[in-house]
Amino acid sequence: MSALLDTTVLDAAIAAVPVVAVIRHTDAPSAERIARAAIEGGIRVVEITFTVPGADALIARLRADHPDVVIGAGTVLTPDQLDAAADAGAVFAVAPILDEAVAARAAERAVAFIPGAFTPTEVARASRGAAAVKLFPAAGLGTAFVTAVRDVLPDVRLMPTGGITAAAVGDWLHAGAYAVGLAGALGTAWRAGGAADVQNTARIAVAAATAERNPA
């Protein structure tokens, strides 16, 4: 990421609501409904993964319809996908791994890059020039891992994702996370009760984040 890249918009949205809705579905209309329901539930940062058919088109639609929401791309594994995300207006791009070619293209296109990592060594390497580092899959690591990594790498912004429930969001933030990615919980909610359950799950996550960041 270029040193001149301005991440103010992303940082402001995360500061307000440190929850990222990760939209992953093989059916494009369902993915769009999940994304819109998460926004209606109060989430202000949405990641459309490239496992969604027509992900770039959905990014562009959501950007047009919700200018107050920060829209990015996920599961960005190739420079071509990064270009497609940038062309669609993605503010940020997330990957489950660190790929140097993708990171370089993100810097060229002025897209905030959030690569994935699992070990402290991977976290340190991935953090160089990155907007944040995605801890994935986070559930297997636990909140104590976030605290331990932050103790030795205090300047690294961590975004744990994978296996996190809406109610547990506050625990991960308390451990030191910069933001929390909510992925499977949204898919589970969609299968259980459609858009209404997705909205409710988003509200629970937002409330948990708010309670942690602004205790009574």
Q: How large a portion of the residues is in β-strands, by DSSP E?
A: 5-15%
- Strand line-up of the largest beta sheet: 3-2-1-9
CATH topology: TIM Barrel
- Low-pLDDT ranges: none
Structural class: alpha/beta
Query: Biggest sheet: strands, sense, closure?
Result: 4 strands, parallel
Return the average pLDDT rounded to an integer.
96
Number of strands: 9
Under CATH, the homologous superfamily reads Aldolase class I
CATH class: Alpha Beta
Compute the number of structural domains: 1
Span of the ends, CA to CA: 38 Å
Bin the helical content. Answer: 40-55%
Helix-strand sequence: HEHEHEHEHEEHEHEHEH
The rounded Rg comes to 16 Å
**Helical segment count:** 9
The global form is globular
CATH architectural category: Alpha-Beta Barrel
Tell me about this structure.
The protein has 216 residues and is of the alpha/beta class. The protein has one domain: TIM Barrel, CATH 3.20.20. 49% of the residues lie in helices and 15% in strands. It contains 9 helices and 9 strands. It has helices at 8-16, 28-40, 55-65, 79-88, 100-108, 120-126, 143-152, 169-175, 184-213; strands at 19-23, 45-49, 70-74, 92-94, 112-114, 116-117, 133-135, 158-160, 180-182. The strands form 3 sheets. The protein has a 4-stranded parallel β-sheet, with helices on both faces. Strands 6-7-8 form a 3-stranded parallel β-sheet. β4 (92-94), α5 (100-108) and β5 (112-114) form a beta-alpha-beta unit. The longest helix is centred in the last third of the chain and has 30 residues, at 184-213. It is globular and about 40 Å long. The N and C termini lie far apart (38 Å). The model has no long low-confidence stretch (mean pLDDT 96). Its EC number is 4.1.3.16. Keywords: Carbohydrate metabolism, Lyase. One of its GO terms (molecular function) is (R,S)-4-hydroxy-2-oxoglutarate aldolase activity. Belongs to the KHG/KDPG aldolase family. Homotrimer.
